[in-house]
Design a protein that fits this description.
alpha/beta, 14 helices, six-stranded parallel sheet, globular
C-alpha cells in the first residue's frame, strides 16, 4: 500500500516494559521498516525517557494531570491513562495533531479517552486496538471471584474496582469506564481485537467495524552461551514446563494438583514469579523463580511439553505462542486468547479451565507418547510463523489503515 503517517497512542512505552508496550514498539518498527511514517505519543514517565530503539519511529511525550488528584494513588514505575479525558493530555494531543497531521490515529487502551474530544472535529480516522477487557471492565481483566466475569453491572463493577484500586481511584475508574464505553463505541472507526475472546467479551464481535488481528512474535531467541550452566537445575530426562507468573489466576494451583495425582510422573518445572504458597513443599516440582527470557525459551526447548492452565480469560496467551514457536506442544485451557493460539489435537490440547482431572489425563498422555509430542511440536513450529509472524500480521494492519483512510478524509485542525 501507499505509505501512511500513523500516530500511535500508547499510554506507556519504552523504557516501561510489558506485553502491550512490546507490541506497540514492534508494530511501529515493522511499519516504519515497510515505509510508513510512525509517531508514538505516550505519557511522560517518572523513570525518564529513552531514545527510540526502532529506526524511523519518533516518540513524543505527553503530560497528564490525573496523577495530581488527591487520594489517587500512583505507581512509581509508570503513569497510566485514566478511562476519561485528561484535560492536560488532551491539550497536548491537540497541539501534536496540528503539528504532525497524521493520516490515521491508532490508539491502544485508555489513552484513547483523551483523544475522543478531538476525534470528530479533526476528522482523522481512529483505530482502537483492544489488548484486554478495559473497554467495559474497570480492572481490565473480567475476572471475579475466581472465574470469568459475566459482564458489567454498575454496583458490581464499583465494588470490585474499589477492592482492586482503593476507594478514590476505584470510584473514579469504575465511573470513567461506564461513561466512556458508549462514547468510545460511537467515535472509533474500527476496533482491532487481539483475539476472538477479546472481541466476544468486549462485545464488539460481529460488528462491521471490528477485526481480529493477533499479536505477532519474532523467532525464538537463540540459547545463551552459558545456558547449560544456568539451566543445570533442569532434570536430565523428560519434564513438563510452566512459565509465566506462578499465580492462582494463571492456573498454577490447578496444575500442581493435577501433577501431584500422577504416580511416578516426570518432574514439573515452574519458571516465573511466585505468588502462591506451598511450592517449596510440592513433591517433584522445581520452581527456580523468574529467568531472563532467552533462558526461559531454552528451558522450553528442553522440555517434553508446556502447560498453560489459566482459569482467567487471558486476552492473548503469549506463553503458548512462544512455546509453539519453540516447537513444543501446549496443554492449554480453552479460555481467552489461548483458543486462538492452540489448535486442539494438532498443536496441543485445549482443556476445560480449572478441570484438574482433564489436565491430569492430558499430561499423562503426553508423558507416555513421545511420538505424539513430536508430531504436535512440529505442527506448532510450522503454524506459528505462518499465522503469527510479522510478515503474516503486519499487512493486516496495513489493510485496516487502508480501509479507514478510504472511508474518511482528514479535515484541517
Amino acid at each position: 500500500m501507499l505509505p501512511v503517517k500513523v500516530l500511535m497512542l500508547a499510554q506507556t512505552y519504552a523504557p516501561v516494559v510489558g506485553g502491550e508496550e512490546r507490541h506497540v514498539e514492534d508494530l511501529s518498527g515493522e511499519l516504519a521498516r515497510r515505509g510508513h511514517e510512525v509517531v508514538v505519543a505516550t505519557l511522560r514517565q517518572p523513570g525518564g525517557e529513552e531514545a527510540p530503539r526502532r529506526p524511523g519511529v519518533r516518540v513524543r511525550r505527553l503530560d497528564s494531570s490525573v496523577h495530581r488528584i488527591p487520594g489517587i494513588e500512583t505507581q512509581a514505575a509508570a503513569n497510566y491513562a485514566p478511562p476519561l479525558p485528561d484535560p492536560v493530555t488532551t491539550a497536548g494531543l491537540r497541539s501534536l495533531l496540528r503539528e504532525e497531521r497524521p493520516d490515521v490515529v491508532h490508539a491502544h487502551n485508555w489513552l484513547v479517552n483523551s483523544y475522543l474530544p478531538l476525534a470528530r472535529r479533526l476528522g482523522v480516522p481512529l483505530v482502537l486496538s483492544l489488548h484486554d477487557y478495559g473497554l467495559l471492565c474497570p480492572t481490565k481483566r473480567l475476572f471475579l471471584e475466581g472465574a470469568v466475569c459475566a459482564g458489567p453491572a454498575a454496583a458490581k463493577c464499583l465494588r470490585h474496582a474499589v477492592d482492586f484500586y482503593g476507594p478514590a481511584k476505584g470510584a473514579l475508574v469504575a465511573g470513567g469506564v461506564a461513561i466512556a464505553d458508549p462514547w468510545v463505541r460511537r467515535r472509533v472507526d474500527l476496533f482491532v481485537s487481539v483475539s476472538t475472546a477479546v472481541a466476544e467479551l468486549c462485545r464488539v464481535a460481529g460488528l462491521p467495524n471490528q477485526r481480529v488481528i493477533p499479536n505477532f512474535a519474532p523467532p525464538p531467541p537463540p540459547p545463551p552461551a552459558d545456558a547449560d550452566e544456568r539451566l543445570a537445575f533442569l532434570p536430565s530426562g523428560d519434564f513438563a514446563l510452566y512459565f509465566g507468573d506462578v499465580s492462582e489466576d494463571k492456573g498454577a494451583r490447578v496444575l500442581l494438583e493435577a501433577h501431584a495425582g500422577l504416580p511416578g510422573a516426570p518432574p514439573l518445572v515452574m519458571i516465573g514469579r511466585r505468588s502462591i504458597d506451598g511450592l517449596d513443599r510440592a513433591r517433584n516440582v522445581i520452581a527456580p523463580g523468574p529467568l531472563p527470557h532467552p533462558l526461559a525459551i531454552e528451558a522450553v526447548r528442553r522440555s517434553a511439553f508446556t502447560v498453560a492452565p489459566s482459569v482467567w480469560a487471558e486476552p492473548f496467551g503469549i506463553v503458548a505462542l512462544e512455546a509453539g514457536a519453540a516447537g513444543k506442544p501446549v496443554l492449554a485451557s480453552a479460555v481467552g486468547g489461548l483458543r486462538d493460539v492452540v489448535v486442539d489435537g494438532v498443536t496441543g490440547r485445549l482443556l476445560p479451565g480449572g478441570d484438574v482431572a482433564a489436565l491430569r489425563a492430558a499430561m499423562a498422555e503426553l508423558f507416555a507418547d513421545r511420538e505424539l509430542r513430536g508430531r504436535m511440536g512440529a505442527a506448532a513450529a510450522t503454524r506459528i510463523p505462518a499465522v503469527f509472524s510479522p510478515a503474516a500480521v503486519v499487512p493486516r494492519f496495513e489493510a485496516v489503515y487502508r480501509e479507514v483512510t478510504a472511508r474518511r478524509s482528514p479535515a484541517s485542525a
